[in-house]
Amino acid sequence: MAVVIDLSAALASTFSHDASIRQQAEQHLDQLKETNFPGYLASITNELGNEDRADDIRQAAALQLKNSVDAKDAVRRQDLMAKWQGTDAALKQHIRDVLLRCLHSPKGDVRKTTALVIAKIANIDMQSKAWPALIPTLLNNMAAQPPASVGTRQATLTTFGYICEEVDESLLSPENVNMILTAVVAGMGQSEQDDVRLAAIKALTNAIHLARGNFEVETERTYLMTVVCQCTLASNQPMRVAAFQCLQQIADNYYPKLQSYMTELYQLSTKAIKDDEDEVATQAIEFWSTVAEYELELVEDGKEDQCKNFIASAAEYLLPLMLDCLAKQDEDSLEDEGTWNRAMAAGFFLKLLARICKDRLVPQVLPFVTGNISSPDWHYREAATFAFGSIMEGPAPAALDQFVRAGLPFLMNALKDQHRVVRETTAWALGQVFEHLHGNEAEGQPPIVAKESIPPLLSALVASLKDEPRVVYYVCDALRFLALGFQSSEGETTPLSPYLKDLVQNLYETAERFRSAPCENSGKAQVAAYEAINDLVRSSARDTLEFVGTLLQVVLGAINTNLETQITSHQAAEKMATLQGQLCGMLQVCMERLCRSDDARAALVPLRDKIMETLLQVMARTQSGAGVHEEAMLAVGTFTVAVGSDFEKYLQNFMPFVRAGLQDHMQWQVCLSTVGVLGDVCRAVGVALWPYCDELVSIILSNLGSPNVHRNIKPELLTVLGDMALAIEGNFAKYLDAVVTILRQAMAMSIQMVSSQDYDTYDYNNLLRRGIIDAFSGIVQGLGDDITKGTGSGSASRDRLTAELPAVYQFVASIGADKTAGDAYDEDVARAATALLGDLCSVLPVRIVLFSTGVVS
């Protein structure tokens, strides 16, 4: 057994208020973990199991133990799992024994944390059947005579819940699942203590997806539903909350089985919505939202025949309840960002209801809005506004037209309401109008936002940019959607053109105000202001391009000014990175807009060197840990489109950043952005990329073969190989054998996904297919000239590609035979696969293609 070290002082220091003490303790523990992992595990386990230690030390030990076997990052988690599996068997058994003993601890917090650690370790051990005693031991805790303590039973049920949440269900035998469910349901019995019943209902919520067999048997299903429904009437408030949360999971997993229980569920939920405490009522509303989302998904997937129409049938009874709930705002949580309560849940359900009931909902909501929009009580003014905005999506524009036209003046005036919540909801509601109706008016109807109403509307919105950050956030959103509603394809002008400069200036000043004087929620408002500017620019007409060019230079100057700022702390570096990211995004949008016009694109020529120099400096800052990389990289991608083949002059200075981005596996989105920009570079410079290809192909192939690279990157890596082949043409023959080998492996993986019929892999498989097809198409087209003319390595390339034709045909056939999504299929993938066969026929002799693929013999 490993030597045990006293870690109580170090663990106590991990929650010190002094950051330096906390950091030293964490470094000490990390060093021990790296240099003596067995000793570290034995020592923290000893601290966890020592009943004489303070509760916070034992909890810190449990947290350290959990973090020794689990991590959020998938790659790190796999490493930790392998490390645990390689640990001495005797030490692992000792740790398991201590953990199971801690479930009997008199300390509730210790028991709860221990339950989570057990589940994390079980997730590893059950894969190799290394902890066979776990489930029987837990079941014994529940069946013990005389009964185990309330604390032990509560902790055991919590452990069951965590296990069902953490462990893949394929690792749990049907017998174990049945025994766990039996123990959990028994724990919900009315004879049990409230703490035990609460732990049981939470455990059932986590385990409900495992109860498929039980829900197929009517008697078992009815028993489970009865027990859960009884818990919604418990005297214990947390238990009622948990019971409705469990019903949400049941609705999501077993919607087709609900028909027989809907009358009782309606009675229980509506009683809770009307009469119970806010938290319980909120979860009761969430039950109906879960049902509504399920039914909407069925309709969107073309499965209307499977829809029971529970929501449409109950709509006229549920609607008055929800409208009433809108006015029950929680006064104590008005200032809490992200608060979720009865009123918010009712508004969300109302949005779903509008999408289901469509036009027929409008006249039912209209009296509530008109009757309360001018109420002297702010609760009802806000509720009416919330109801107004919530039904903008779903009903046809014609059904909403008169309603909205009459309501807009009230909303503009309400931006000046004395209560902040009313102003905030008003700005949101205006955004809903602009998003769903503005630009989508019914045929023959004049614009919702008439030309003569623009000045007062903009005046009201701009004035509200000086409001509190939470109001400003939604004002910026409203301006975004207003601009997008006026967007037209390369129009000479739009109704917003005369106001673009002032709008952008006001939004820029708003962002600067929040940056220079940050306050609560100012960060979101600052970002929203920049995003509004971006959409105003995207939507701008030709008559404003001169201003867009001026804005580009202003943004460029701001980025350079920031580059000269001295960074004095990590916090300052993070703030600067966020700001530079927003500015690089604005620069990118300005370039994109100018590139849509040949005249405006020409105006970029004098600024080319300055733009690229600035972006390179931003990326250089990233490598020193004080800048932003992804947004600058994306801006370079747009820049390549702007300058075309002239980008060749920047390749030497830019390629080190491409290399760094491709190798940045930990920040996979940065890596993904870099791959996309490399494709842009390929299309811009063509064969000029050739001197850099050895290194680039090497990194790409290494990434494709690495388990540490996020899988979402790999299809894009395949695509960029096709881009490179198109760029360097016959030179790509040098890499053909290695690349085709990788493509063969990718095709086999895709075919295997089809064989497994796993719907969870369907979307990813389509991404992978596009990558494979893009790569092959690029290669065939890039090498096509040499193959057809017999020049260079054309003959060898032809033979190598011909050898792969049977595999390619099998891959294409698997796309047509894929029934993972039923009769649905990805049309883009199918078209691309057909086009690939056409590319092959255009380069290789048709007879060879048909013979090699088995079409003819």
UniProtKB/TrEMBL annotation:
Q: Where are the HEAT repeats?
A: 407-445
Q: Record's InterPro entries?
A: ARM-like, ARM-type_fold, HEAT_type_2, IMB1_TNPO1-like_TPR, Importin-beta_N, Importin_beta, TPR_IPO4/5
Q: Can you list the GO cellular component terms from the UniProt entry?
A: cytoplasm
The Importin N-terminal domain covers 25-105
State the Gene Ontology BP annotations: protein import into nucleus
Q: Which PROSITE patterns match?
A: HEAT_REPEAT (PS50077), IMPORTIN_B_NT (PS50166)
Keywords of this entry: Cytoplasm, Nucleus, Protein transport, Repeat, Transport
GO MF entries: small GTPase binding
Q: Where in the cell is it found?
A: Cytoplasm; Nucleus
**Top-rank taxon, per record:** Eukaryota
Q: Which Pfam families match?
A: HEAT_EZ (PF13513), IBN_N (PF03810), TPR_IMB1 (PF25574), TPR_IPO5 (PF25780)
Family the UniProt entry places it in: Belongs to the importin beta family. Importin beta-1 subfamily.
What is the protein named? Importin N-terminal domain-containing protein
